[in-house]
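DM from R.C. (forwarded with permission)

"hey, sorry to bug you on a friday — could you get me a structure for this? deadline for the figure draft is monday and I only need the backbone to look sensible"
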Amino acid sequence: MNALNDIIPTMISALRIASTRAAVVNAPRAIGATRSFAIGEAFGRKEKVEEDRYIRAREQQIAESRHRAAEAEAHAAELAAADQAKIAAKNAAMHEIADMLAKTGDVVSEAGLANLAAWKHE
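My reply, with the result:
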């Protein structure tokens, strides 16, 4: 009996240590470890959604800037063609005026011809 009395307190203290260790090891798992994993997974999905949204917005910005650049280039080409047409019309008018003046024997300076051609096209 005496030996049993010595063993029982030792067993009880060993069981206490084991049960507190089990409680410490299992406590985070029971309290929030699985929940934090679920929250972490939700945050991961949210980050992925945000990344995808940013990528789509950036791609749209790039496409819009390319579209605006193409429009600007087309507009510049139209302006250049219109300028060429105006220059060709002015040169034709200057030659026509110069031919008319040559028939009558009158002489006008190059600047005067340009002014007459501009006046004719206004």
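R.C.: lifesaver. Confidence is low (pLDDT under 50) at residues 22-27.
me: no worries. The helical segments are 2-104, 110-121.
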